[in-house]
Amino acid sequence: MAIESVVVRQRVEDLDAAVPFYERLTGSTASRFAFAGVTLASVGPFLLFSGPDEAVRRVAGVAATLAVGDLDAAVEDAVAGGAEVVAPSAPTPNGHRAVLRHPHGGVYEYVGP
Questions:
Q1: CB under 8 Å to 43, separation ≥6 — which residues?
Q2: What string of DSSP letters covers 53-104?
Q3: Which strand (E) or helix (H) includes residue 18?
């Protein structure tokens, strides 16, 4: 398994106010979408999110998003190494995702084809 990139998650109170700062910082244009009651913006290596506390807790409980070239293989490798599947692979607005708890406690979202 190879992790191709890591996306840093950041909760913001006002997504519309935060996006321009991160666009300037990264030189990237935000891609906005909604998922599970949360409004999100992907800007370079940052995933900004905002929404009601209950919905945001589900997103904020994940330390980072790890992009992989083969999601099924990455999940299989992680589980073989002691990770626990918290949420199995499922389609999302941006591909497929699975959430795993690593053997040392960290919870990570894996995304890929």
A1: 19, 22, 23, 26, 28, 29, 30, 31
A2: HHHHHHHHTS-EEEEES-HHHHHHHHHHTT-EEEEEEEEETTEEEEEEE-TT
A3: helix 15-26
Q: What is the pTM of this model?
A: 0.80
Domain count, the chain: 1
pLDDT per position as a tens digit, 82-105 = 999 999 999 987 789 999 999 999
- The residue to which tokens 């960290």 are assigned: 106
Give the CATH number, domain containing residue 16: 3.10.180.10
Q: Give the domain range for residue 62.
A: 3-112
